[in-house]
Write a structure and sequence with these properties.
single chain; alpha/beta; seven-stranded mixed beta sheet; 42% helix
């Protein structure tokens, strides 16, 4: 039987399922948390290379997990994981009870936002181009450093231990695929009006231009959005401001679940599927690519980002944990 209240949380690029461990602990048994890992992580392996990579390819694991049950789920995503979450929500809108996004990297929307998105798109396109050029010439270390210092703030790479840097260097060839998938996603901006589930969009006070612009734009595209800003945080807020971010997400999930129960209780009994209509427990059949947030938080990118301050303890935590390859 599909576990009631399932939360599916999607991590950012270069991280892994353990990013959401603290959220899973906060939600407790009432809301079991599954965290499918993206291509490029050891659990999921490399992209097959059989065709041009897209968000649809990355979303397969999550959609497969949703389709194994009948219950509505709560979907969470950070950065690249937020871009994948939006794609999943568009593919399965009636199966999503709530959506929680921290600075989703839906870069394809920037090109459709006119003047509001022009500068942000130019900035992220330049980062994507520079990262790709590093990979093409074989300098994976330079690509990883560029990536980390952009999202985590200048100097973030230098704060990491060599073992963590090695993990991210190993992951780095996936970065251009993520950028391309986010930029070339074909979904039209008008499609997002179909997403009527309760949605929480969070951004850091010091969000970089591209994701900050997107976080501010989404409420005008989707009918049921509320927003929140984390003081002092940057793009890596889910790792540097763990409690503040997770408490917002947990509250949103609980409020949405309560509203969902009220709505379901008002439906005629004939509309409620019986036990025979429920599919096998998706968690029992997930295999190695699904992690119930039991690993350490992979805060490899959690350094002071875009004006974001971080304590010595927080920097040590960022260095101690690893990327998805740890």
């Amino acid at each position: 039987m599909f576990p009631a209240g399932l939360v599916i949380a999607l991590h950012c690029s270069g991280a892994g399922a353990g990013q959401w461990r603290s959220l899973g602990e906060l939600l407790g048994s009432e809301f079991p948390l599954a965290a499918p890992e993206h291509y490029g992580c050891d659990r999921s392996g490399s992209w097959s290379g059989t065709h041009a990579f897209s968000l649809a390819d990355e979303a397969v694991r999550t959609i497969e997990l949703i389709d194994r049950g009948m219950e509505r789920i709560h979907l969470v995503g950070h950065s690249y994981g937020g871009g994948v979450a939006l794609h999943v929500a568009l593919m399965r809108p009636h199966r999503i009870a709530s959506l929680s996004l921290y600075e989703p990297s839906a870069f394809h929307l920037l090109r459709q936002m006119g003047d509001r998105g022009r500068d942000g798109f130019a900035e992220i396109a330049a980062v994507a181009r520079a990262t790709g050029e590093c990979i093409l010439c074989g300098d994976h270390a330079a690509a990883a450093k560029l990536f980390v210092d952009y999202w985590g703030g200048r100097g973030a790479w230098a704060t990491m231990r060599p073992s963590v840097q090695s993990d991210l260097i190993r992951w780095a060839p996936k970065a251009p695929l993520d950028f391309r998938a986010l930029i070339e996603e074909p979904t039209a901006i008008e499609a997002y009006s179909q997403l009527r589930m309760p949605t929480l969009v969070i951004r850091g006070e010091h969000a970089p231009l591209p994701t900050g612009a997107l976080a501010e734009e989404l409420p005008s595209l989707m009918p049921c959005v509320r927003t929140s800003v984390i003081p002092g945080a940057g793009h890596m807020g889910p790792m540097t401001h763990v409690s503040a971010v997770n408490e917002l997400i947990a509250a949103h999930i609980r409020t949405s679940a309560a509203a969902d129960r009220v709505s379901e209780s008002a439906q005629p009994a004939s509309n409620v599927p019986d036990g025979d209509g429920l599919r096998a427990n998706p968690i029992a059949a997930t295999g190695r690519n699904y992690d119930m947030a039991s690993r350490s938080v992979p805060s490899a990118l959690a350094a002071s980002g875009h004006g974001e301050r971080q304590s010595d303890a927080g920097r040590d935590r960022a260095d101690r944990y690893g990327s998805c390859n740890a």
